[in-house]
Amino acid sequence: MSQVLFDIPGPKAARRHRILAVVTAAALVGIVGVVIWKLQSEGELAYAEWEPFFTPAYLELLLEGLLMTLLAGLLAISAAMVVGSLFGVAKLSSHWFIRWPAWLFVEFFRAVPLLMLIIFIWALQGYPLESLTPLVLGLVLYNGSVLAEILRAGINAVPAGQSEAAYALGMRKSQVMRIVLLPQAIKIMLPSIISQCIVALKDTSLGFYILAPGLTFAGRGIWREFKNYLQTGIVLAVIYIVLNLLLYLLGVWLQRRFGGESKVDLVGGIVQSQPGGGAAVPGPY
Questions:
Q1: pLDDT tens for residues 65-101?
Q2: Engineering a disulfide at 260: which of 18, 198, 213, 276 sits with its beta carbon 3.0 to 4.6 angstroms away?
Q3: Interacting residues of 88 by C-beta distance below 8 A, sequence separation 6+
Q4: Dihedral (CA of 20, 23, 29, 33) sign
Q5: Residue 206 gets which letter from DSSP?
């Protein structure tokens, strides 16, 4: 029997919903019109304020900043995945001398504000100019600790019967983790991983505070010369929104490609996936 959260609207309710939709759309159009009128009256839409973004030299500067932002994001996300995997598995270790240091690492770097962490690493390195290293290290430590907690939660979300059956078959703990738990946990936590990758990409903008090369550093040079703070902010925001949308679409594709229901056959030692979940992985037997 199907379950619904609300009743299907009748003729009067449907008419009321259409009226509310029209009123809401008209209000939004009115708000946008007022904002445009205000910007026009303040001279913010004048060509002189937007001219840098039609000039090849400044477009090249923004392109270089975009490439450095993508490089910092790629390095940070890749390294954070490794750090998160190591410490996420370590937090589940049965050995206290592995579990407790991992717990301290994750909880400490999750609690420290990211900007303070980046500035602290920058200070330790002697305040280098135009260096990505403090930014990337800060992003790796923070996002790696968050991903470690996501991984731990994903593994714990796998039904306990899966690991119990694997142990009953004589598998070692490393085999249970690698063959049974991780393939299923990754599918469970894939949306959270993509979300954290988007957060890491946006946080590359914090490199502005330590003069690290990137989009915000390139924008800094433009607005200091032309004093067009609003226009530069809008352009940078649009670029970040497009990057995050592309990363989101990649996550949607990965979810459809690899997020199928997994089926674990412990008797045959085979981890299989339903259509859309990837190829079968042979087991140890």
A1: 999 999 999 999 999 999 999 999 899 888 889 999 9
A2: 276
A3: 147, 148, 149, 150, 151, 152, 155
A4: negative
A5: G
Q: Each residue of 157-175: pLDDT tens digit?
A: 888 888 888 888 888 877 8
Which of 1.10.10.10, 1.10.3720.10, 1.10.3210.10, 3.90.190.20 is the CATH number of 53-260? 1.10.3720.10
* 248, two tokens: 């989101």
In the chain, domain spans: 53-260
pTM greater than the 0.90 cutoff = no
CA distance 139 to 66: 17
For the record, the structure tokens of 23 come out as 């009123």
**Mean residue pLDDT across the chain:** 85
The candidate with the shortest Cα–Cα distance to 187, out of 161, 144, 164, 157, is 157
Question: What are the b/e assignments for 133-154, b being 16+ CB within 10 Å?
Answer: ebbbbbbbbbbbbbbbbbbbeb
Alpha helices in the chain (DSSP H): 11-41, 47-50, 56-90, 96-111, 114-124, 133-157, 160-168, 173-175, 182-203, 215-226, 229-258
Distance CA 234, CA 65 (A): 16
- Residue 80's pLDDT is what? 95
Query: 195, 150 in Cβ contact below 8 A?
Result: no
Kindly write down the DSSP assignment for every residue of 157-169, as one continuous string: HS-HHHHHHHHHT
DSSP 52: G
